[in-house]
Amino acid sequence: MKAGKIIKSKIKQATRFIPALGLVWQSSPGWTIARIILVSIQGILPLAAIYLAKLIIDTVTSNLRAANPSAAFDQILPLLIIAGIVTIIISLCQSLTELVNTAHSQKVTDYMQGIIHAKSIEADLEYYENAKYHDALQRAQQEAPYRPPQILNRLAEAGQNGISLVAMIGLLLSLHWGIIGILLVAAIPAVLVRMKYSRVMYYWQRRRTQLERQSMYLGWMITADQYAKEIRLFDLGSWFSKEYLKIRNKLYQERLSIATKRSIAYFLAQATAGIFVFGVFAFIIYQTIQGILLLGDLVLYYQALQRGQQNLKALLTSLSGLYEDNLFLANLYEFLDLKPKIVEPEYPKLLPQPITKGIIFDNVSFQYTDSARQALKNINLTIKPGETIALVGENGSGKTTLIKLLCRLYDPTSGNITIDGVDLRDFKIADLRKQIGVIFQDYAKYHFTAAENIRLGNIDILPGDHQIRSAACRSGADDVIQRLPQKYDTILGKLFAQGEELSIGQWQKVALARAFLRDSQVIVLDEPTSAMDPKAEYEVFSRFRELIKDQAAILITHRLSTVRMADRIYVMEQGSIVESGTHSELIKQQGKYAYLFETQAQNYR
Ligand SMILES: Nc1ncnc2c1ncn2[C@@H]1O[C@H](COP(=O)(O)OP(=O)(O)OP(=O)(O)O)[C@@H](O)[C@H]1O
Questions:
Q1: Which atom of ligand 1 is nearest to the CA of 126?
Q2: What pTM was computed for the model?
Q3: Would the ipTM clear 0.95, i.e. be above it?
Q4: Residue 470: which domain range?
Q5: CA of 395 to the centre of ligand 1 (A)
Q6: Of 181, 301, 540, 580, which is the most exposed, with the fewest CB atoms less than 10 Å away?
């Protein structure tokens, strides 16, 4: 049983390249066929060229002292014409190959990128917070664009060289059977060297992915706009650059050491092969001098030997390259085989519209993978339809984590979350997320137009829809946008031409408009006004109920003055809810909330 499993997994490993060919085919069937046809023609035509050369030389030799030279030339002329045509076709195929390869490569690259994008979108948020995922993604991105088409090329080359080789072997067998053995023995050491160093490189690359990523990270920081201010003010540029070079140098030394050993081993293998082949050359020349072979035969065998050796070398190179590709394809499949833990239910239930009883957290606990502590402990919490609740608590107390669970970015480790009595895990993920409009404190800044920035909150509405402006009016973003040169058509951020940079508070107003646009039953705002000026913040919170219409709302904020209007306030501490009630109830309790509120209020007196 165990042996059977091992054999099965070995076969799976050895045939990894087959699905990769499927990917190449799917990327562009037309270009794939064109590539195969060209490669096949290029495999056969050189044989024809050699054979024509032999025919021409033999005809010339037999007519050397012909009585009628022009008749002899007439005999040779058709052969010359055919040889010329073959040469032209070979050149044509070479040019077409360049064209086909350029077009096909782009198709495959884009197709593979599409697959990686789809997988990245499907992946759980947890993966993005995990270094191993980033390693796998980096390796997959390295291999995806070129390994699959390379496999196709290698197979085609192997086929091409295989065809030529069979013909050459046929020829050389008529000379001496031992020559084939010599050719094989001569070529094998180089193949073994190549296979060995493919493995060494593969495992080295896997070990070093993280270091490669660290260097990329440093390189990115040096060039990214987010870091430009601090790098200049703290004078970090040269230090980052030095760290970057230190890592690159380490990688360079290690890679060079492997490459040097590989070159030496490869040279020794090739030199051995060369000595064998020269022995065979000597044998052919000796036979010709002895008069056993004709001059045409000498040329034929000489070329057949040379070509045969080249073909065999190329064939074995393709096969060992295939071995290498097969090995490195594991990097791609490792990424493509990642399975999301947040899965769709087999029989999804309809999400209630409207929600009547509410959302209930029932004894929910949660621990991040690889973390020693529980981020949430026995959370019990209710959000009734149309109600506004507030979560307050110190940094790291678990507020954002609670929201991540509500949106099923993670599932609870124990306990459950229900909507009208149905577990969140029983709804289609998209249906659930459609009903929750969330803006996290690290909201996205899209370098698109202002209108698109808001519309991304609900891409089901049309680009020119009046709801975009009305959401902007509710968040205070309209005033900002009206002052931009192209108003709602102005590109935000400085990444693209004619882009206009906003202040942090202005970006936040745009993000808030995105949340208002979402046609959801629940709105979750994680520090929605942290960067806004007091006037803007006042405008949002004094009209909050009106702004969110009949949505249920969850507010996370450290500014306790803004949570007074909440129907219920939950105070969190180290993953637990330690107090809950209305503002006045909590003030009366004289507990944690009252203390925090008093402390903040004192600062304003
Ligand atoms: N992806 C993660 N992996 C592991 N631990 C995490 C992860 N995200 C957060 N944590 C930990 O979980 C705890 C709760 O974090 P959370 O972000 O929910 O806090 P918060 O109350 O929202 O804090 P803040 O007020 O600073 O936004 C913290 O101790 C944090 O270190």
A1: 1
A2: 0.79
A3: yes
A4: 442-519
A5: 8
A6: 181
DSSP-based three-state secondary structure for 349: strand
Domain count of the chain?
Answer: 3
| Domain identity same for 452 and 329 | no
- Is there a single domain that holds both residue 284 and residue 426? no
Q: Report DSSP state, residue 500.
A: B
- Judge if 49 and 97 occupy the same domain: yes
Residue 376 bridge partners (DSSP): 366
- Do residues 320 and 447 both lie within one domain? no
Quick: pLDDT tens for 51-64. 888 888 888 888 77
Same domain, yes or no: 454 and 526: no
Name the residue with the closest Cα to ligand 1, atom 4. Answer: 368
What is the 529 CA–ligand 1 centroid distance (Å)? Answer: 20
CA of 576 to the centre of ligand 1 (A): 13
Ligand 1 nearest atom to the CA of residue 527, by list position: 27
603 lines ligand 1 (CB under 6 A): no
Considering only residues 248 and 551, tell me which one the structure prediction assigns the higher pLDDT. Answer: 248
- Give 213-258 as a DSSP string: HHHHHHHHHHH-HHHHHHHHHTT-HHHHHHHHHHHHHHHHHHHHHH
Supply the residue whose CA is at minimum distance from atom 25 of ligand 1. Answer: 395
Contacts of 178 (CB under 8 A, 6+ apart): none
Category of 408 on φ-ψ map: left (φ > 0), alpha (ψ -120 to 50) or beta: left
Is residue 557 lining ligand 1, measured as CB closer than 6 Å? Answer: no
Residue 57, both tokens: 């030389």
Instruction: Please provide residue 579's backbone torsions phi and psi, each rounded to the nearest 5 degrees.
Output: -150, 150
List of residues 6+ apart from 499 with CB closer than 8 A = 447, 490, 491, 492, 493
Asked if residue 4 belongs to a domain, the reply is: no
- For residue 342, how far is its CA from the centre of ligand 1 (angstroms)? 19
Amino acid at 256: L
Q: Residue for token digits 């490189």? A: 201
3-state secondary structure of 391: strand
Same domain, 478 and 427: no
Mean pLDDT taken over the chain: 88
Closest CA to 47 of 280, 295, 300: 300
In a domain, 402, yes or no: yes
> Given pLDDT bands bounded at 50, 70 and 90, which one contains residue 605?
low
Do 68 and 202 sit in the same domain of this protein? yes
528-567 residue pLDDT tens: 777 778 787 877 777 777 778 888 999 998 888 888 889 9
Type and span of the H or E element at 306 = helix 295-336
Residue 129 near ligand 1, beta carbon < 6 Å: yes
CB 527 within 8 A of CB 558: yes
**Which secondary-structure segment (H or E) carries 577?**
strand 576-581
Query: How large is the average pLDDT for residues 299-320?
Result: 80
